[in-house]
Amino acid sequence: MFFSKFRFSTLLVLSGFFFVPVLRQAPVETPSEAFQKLMTEFDEGLESLNIPSLTYDYREYFNAIPDEAKIQKQEDFFNGIQSKLAAIEKKRLTALNQLHYDHIDFEIRLNLERTALEKAYRKRKPDAIPTNGLSQMEGWYAYRIHFFTSLHITPEELFSFGEKEVARVQGEIKKVQNSLGFKDDDAFYAHLQSDEFYLHDKNKILEYYEEIKKIAFHNLGRMFRDTAIADIAFMEWANAGPFTPPGYYSPRADNAYGTGVFHFNFYDGRHNRRAMDWLFIHEAVPGHHYQWSLRDRLPDQPAFKRQFYYPGNFEGWGAYVEYFGKEIGLYRDPYAELGKWEWDLVRSVRILIDVGIHHYGWSKEEAMNCWKKYIRGQDEIAEREVVRCTNWPAQALSYKVGAWKIQQMADQLKKAHPDSFSLPDFHHTYLMTGASPLEAIEKNMEALMQENL
Residue 163, Cβ neighbours under 10 Å: how many? Predict the structure, then answer.
């Protein structure tokens, strides 16, 4: 039987019933739904602002600082996102979204620190950008430390850390020296300058790297959970010169070769055999190539993570895994192990030089004296490294500080869970966080490991 609305309501009244329509409330938005919306808003806002990446050379950066209106627009955006983020209950999010929450929080604070500095710079713009570092540019070195390490750590703490690392690494070098039977320091360092440690045949270099790769790939499962990774190719660094590092990695997405490539420095027709094991570990496997290969498989990564990069994360990882050379079958002789410690000492001294120049106001002469005080037999690269630290404030910190923080995370978790902690699982979880600041990873690592990310 069919009733019209009028007839239906009339019948209800005649029957002694009154029809009261019930107003349905709109569904309450969950914290997860609110956060998903905020991540989308954050990503779209970043796209529209088109904020340029921080350049390594601080003089280029200062020359590119935008006008005050653009800086204010950026500041308003990050303040708005900060207010909305604070309204979301972080504890009610999944472990992975709590990582993303802390990632966004880190970027908000970092960018508000930057915009405040840029506004102040615009108001009292100096007649000339200083060429001797940032020691007279208040606040800027602290910001760059924050950016390159993705941690809050003071220059004083960094300098103390650098001093301790210099002493530790020098002790490791001394152990190798003694194992080789050299009691006299001068004789030892003179021996290290011998041409016998240099390969001059490019084909021999390629063959040796292929041998290293075979060993590393075969033994990867000893320390790392993920072993099925893409191959890597080796090529000479075409434009290498006296001021370029010993090698670099080019991801598949950034080159025309269709695969990840490790480029080795063959400037002046030679390549240091002592450096080849640690170089492969850092640039290839289980370093940058391994890390990038796994990032290609990351599930459910929010779009905003493509907007950022964190040197403390990826350079720290490359430096961290160098300590596992023996575990993956490398450092097969004392000289290969020595090569790792020689470069570790360079990175440690660079911390002192970096802080010395940009915080304590060291002159170039003082920086060179620091190098020569602690490093023997590598005067030919002293100029390069001092200039690098001067022009790229805080960049050199990312290696040692990042490695230290990753190791600290592993140590703390092992101490908290001595019976269940797995280093391969820790490595897997760390890499599955993708391009995230170390500060955010540290806050969430335990929960992410429990969730078996």
Answer: 15
Alpha-carbon span 217 to 289, nearest angstrom: 12
Is 65:121 a contact under the CB 8 Å cutoff? yes
Sequence-ordered list of residues with C-beta below 8 angstroms from that of 130, at least 6 positions apart, any chain: 136, 137
Per-residue model confidence as pLDDT tens digits over 414-443: 999 999 999 999 999 999 999 999 999 999
When the pLDDT of each residue in the chain is averaged and rounded to a whole number, the result is: 92
Q: Is 271 helix (H, G, I), strand (E, B) or coil?
A: strand
CA nearest neighbour of 78 among 239, 307, 403, 411:
307
Check residue 237 and give its pLDDT.
Answer: 95
Confirm if 313 and 402 have CB atoms less than 8 A apart: yes
Q: Are 37 and 104 within 8 A, CB to CB? A: no
Element (H, E) at 348: helix 334-358
Least trusted range by pLDDT, from 64-78, 84-98, 137-151, 294-308: 294-308
CA atoms within 13 Å, Cβ hemisphere of 70? 12
Q: Which of 30, 29, 34 is nearest to 83 (CA)?
A: 34
3-state secondary structure of 247: strand
Task: Tell me which residue of 87, 71, 102 sits closest to 31, measured CA to CA.
Answer: 87
List the one residue out of 103, 94, 157 whose CA is nearest residue 438.
Answer: 103
Six token digits for residue 245: 């590092």
Question: What per-residue confidence (pLDDT) applies to 10?
Answer: 37
* Predicted confidence (pLDDT) per residue in 6-17, tens digit: 333 433 333 444
Report the pLDDT value the prediction gives residue 111, as an integer from 0 to 100: 98
CA distance 142 to 156: 11
Which of 356, 197, 128, 306 is CA-nearest to residue 369? 356
